[in-house]
Amino acid sequence: MSAVDLCLLTAGLLLGLGPLALLGQGRGRSSAVVYSASGLLCAVLALSGLAGLGGLGIGTSRVLPLGLPWMGAHFAFDALTAFFLVVLGFGGGIISLYAIGYGRHEHAPMRVLPFYPAFLGAMALVLLAADAFSFLLSWEVMSLLSWALVLTHHQEEDARKAGYVYLVMAGFGTMSLLLAFGLLAGPDGAYQFDAMRGTAHPPLMAVAILGLMLLGAGSKAGLAPLHVWLPLAHPAAPSHVSALMSGVMTKVALYGFIRVVFDLLGPVAWWASPVVILLGAGTAVLGILLAMMERDLKRALAYSTIENIGVIFAALGLAMAFRANGMTAAAALAFTAALFHIFNHMAFKSLLFMGAGSVLNATGLRDLDGLGGLIHRMPVTSFLVLVGAMAISALPPLNGFASEWLIFQAVLLSPDAPQAAVQMIIPAAGGLLALAAALAAACFVRIYGVGFLGRPHSEAAANAQEVDRVSLTAMALLAATCLLAGIFPGTVIDAMAPVVDAMLSGRLPVQADETWFTIIPIAESRSSYSGMLVFVFVALSASAAAWAVHRFASDRLRRAPAWDCGFPDASPLTQYSAGGFAQPIRRVYGTDLLGARETVTMPPPGDTGPARHELLVGDPSWNGIYLRLALAVTYVTTRMNRLQFLTIRRYLTLVFMSLIVLLVGLMLWR
Amino acid sequence: MILQLFVQGIQMLLVVALAPLLVGIVRRVKARLTRHRGAPLIQPYRDILRLMRKEVVLAENASWLFRVTPYMVFAGTWVAAALVPTFSTGLQFSWTADLIAIVALLGSARFFLALAGMDVGTSFGGIGSSREMMIATLAEPAMLLTVFSLALVAGSTQLSHVSAYLASPEVGLRVTLGMGLIALVIVALAENARIPVDNPSTHLELTMVHEAMVLEYSGRHLAMIELASALKLLLYVSLIGCIFFPWGIAQPGDGLARHGLALLLYVAKLAVAGTLLALFETSIAKMRVFRVPNFIGTALMLALLGALLLFVTRSV
């Protein structure tokens, strides 16, 4: 059986597993069975992806007699598909493992079980599709199934609103993709990917296709300002589905972008790339600032997904800029960095959403200001979440830093580009990315410090219980991935080399030969980084210092009440809250960028009533674009409503006038 | 090879040994400038040793994170400081981490310290952590942009290469380097919690940042943190020294005598830097915390302008 057949079969089984889940209705073990089966099928996908990266089964394809009658449905398996199958299979497999434990707490399992495996299957089909029709069909199935999963808790007002916004945005995104593929196919209707590769696209049309892909794939991935559905929809779903949507589905959207822009489209004019770079860097800063302002744990994580998507888009934009100038090595570096960050974000964002799910299970709370002190009550979860938080904050020696480091190295190659605009914009974008990374660290200190450290803010947090072993195992696997990918980045880079080679006909130097697992993207005199040595050095010197101090100085220790400058307060409410922690950053960045406004109402002198503090902060694009758009649509439709109450005479005139307009149009056309 | 390993070992011990001395110099000069007698130069060593021998008083609510943090912060800062060339660029492990990784390593240390500030659940710890992270969000991009403009000049982010390149006569005076120096000094002041951003010598001031974060620490834990912050100050001084004043730094090929001379020169550089820092701190007032963004923003702008200026001057 060829690789593509195996993957198709697996995807088909996943799709079929959905309806099968309905049979298990009412039986207690059905959810464990469905999740285990999904996990195993995902493992098959991941393994075939890995084999594909090793060169097995690359180039196999299959035509099924489905879809458009004169064309059939084409599926193919190449290096890019293989890489994303690894992301999907690995992420989906571990999330399914987590769901075996987590799913037991779901009070309406039949609202999740039928859709969950089918959602995984649809994502696999998107990755395998090799013609526009099956791609768009799988894409739409993926969107609708995830929409159904978002509506699992449909009794909640938030979930219903999220579902509505998501549906509108998904429809808009698919429409853009449809137009993009229409332009790609050209007048002859070459809907197969192979045929599209052969078609030449004039420069302006290539830029139009790029713009449509930014709208279509960007809206699915969460590129600003099309991101508004994401922080509503991702947290509304059950936590393992949130992990799947944030960690994996956004990557499938990125796959669509990469497939079209780097594979099918051919070269795009250089002046389009700064737009992508700035959009990405801007998205990163906006996303993480909004995450900083958010009190809801899962929604803050969703905003941080937007940040990471922005980082990836910026790296892809860099790759486009270098490719347009024929700088293959630099383009390969930026592209490798983007792929690496895609893999990393899958790992740590899934881990963090699982952690949020465990906290939600243990306390019933998503509000950071209700949590606190979990490190005592849930030690293992807290430790694993700490690893995820460090990884996403781009701290060495974990994986998030390795990919960000590669991106910065790519930024530093900008002076070799011939255009002044590229030269000037890229360092500025590098500054924005550095700002986003620093804000991410602040954001996760806030999430972890308020949510997991300190004293419990509520009864529920004080009585939290550690979650089950299965969930913890799944989280531990991802935490280990974060560490290993950070310590051995060279291995990951080498594994991704076939993809880079297939897209850009160039690759980074082989990293496996370097000593001590060092990565050297260009030349040793330019830059190098060894995650493993940094890890070993820090671990060694920390333990040596601890040992020496305990051995030669003192190891006595006494527990006593907190000092707090002499005024310890018994109430846990005196701790810093999520809003309080964010206040300095809100004052510095939020006033101008997010339009944050605070008002303090003090009671008059002598009055013992409480003072009031009000804070207005929100997503500027929601108020600035979407609400205005909605108002405009309402305005136009109310005006047009009048057309429903015309007399017969006027209707006839209307029909006659339109006929004349059409005829005149036809005349001018000829 | 053997010499490089030797130099690396000496450097690791040297930075730990000299860091408290630098703090001592700054304190001593500051005291003299304000007409105090001041503590002897070795007072910081005594303080650290005394703290190490004392019993730790741990808050009841403190978790394992709180107890691990001092060693992590110390280790992260120490590794970073050991990779910045002080008296010789021929460090055995200089390729382990480039300048970006060194900045990020310091970021890791700060991440843990800020978390430890939140761990006990007191309001002072929270105020320190939240302000420290706010300052970091400004200082880190400024630092990285400075690194960018330096890397554009030197064609490398590897510190030993940058230092060796800037020591070579072909560089000459450049406006970008001047801007980078000012930006780096501002970042160094902010990162090391010095006046005008923060005040290292007060404990009970509403504007305090770093000291509020470590308020709950005592005994050996506090000693490690004090040592780590001294190391960080030394790191920034060495960084500014090896980039902007690389005179006399020994190169890999040089002999032992040359290395000894470079070592003496490095100690002299430390003394000068400590004096200048003390002079600056006594002549300026502490800023209100929300004025700090403007101060560090200057560094950010200078670094960005420095990078852009390079392109402009090159393309003309």
Provide an overview of this structure:
The complex is a heterodimer of chains A (670) and B (316). Chain A has helices at 3-21, 30-53, 79-102, 115-128, 132-150, 157-185, 193-198, 203-221, 230-236, 239-264, 273-293, 297-324, 328-363, 374-377, 379-392, 399-411, 420-451, 459-462, 469-487, 489-504, 531-553, 578-593, 620-640, 648-669; strands at residues 60-64, 73-77, 557-560, 597-601, 612-616. Chain A has 670 residues and is mostly helical. Chain A has a two-stranded antiparallel ribbon with strand order 1-2. In chain A, 56% of the residues are buried. Chain B is 71% helix and 1% strand. Chain B has eleven helices and one strand, in the order ααβααααααααα. In chain B, helix 1 (2-33) packs parallel to helix 10 (256-282) and helix 9 (219-244) packs across helix 10. The longest helix of chain B is centred in the first third of the chain and has 32 residues, at 2-33. Chain B is globular, with a radius of gyration of 19 Å. The mean pLDDT of chain B is 90. The interface between A and B is large, with 90 and 90 residues. Strand 3 (557-560) of chain A pairs parallel with strand 1 of chain B, so a sheet runs across the interface.
Set down the secondary structure blueprint:
The complex is a heterodimer of chains A (about 675) and B (about 325).
Chain A lengths: L2 H19 L8 H24 L6 E5 L8 E5 L1 H24 L12 H14 L3 H19 L6 H29 L7 H6 L4 H19 L8 H7 L2 H26 L8 H21 L3 H28 L3 H36 L10 H4 L1 H14 L6 H13 L8 H32 L7 H4 L6 H19 L1 H16 L26 H23 L3 E4 L17 H16 L3 E5 L10 E5 L3 H21 L7 H22 L1
Chain B lengths: L1 H32 L9 H11 L2 E4 L4 H20 L15 H21 L3 H32 L4 H9 L7 H17 L18 H4 L5 H26 L11 H27 L9 H24 L1
Helix pairs in contact in B: 1-3, 1-9, 1-10, 2-9, 3-4, 3-9, 4-5, 5-7, 5-11, 7-9, 7-11, 9-10
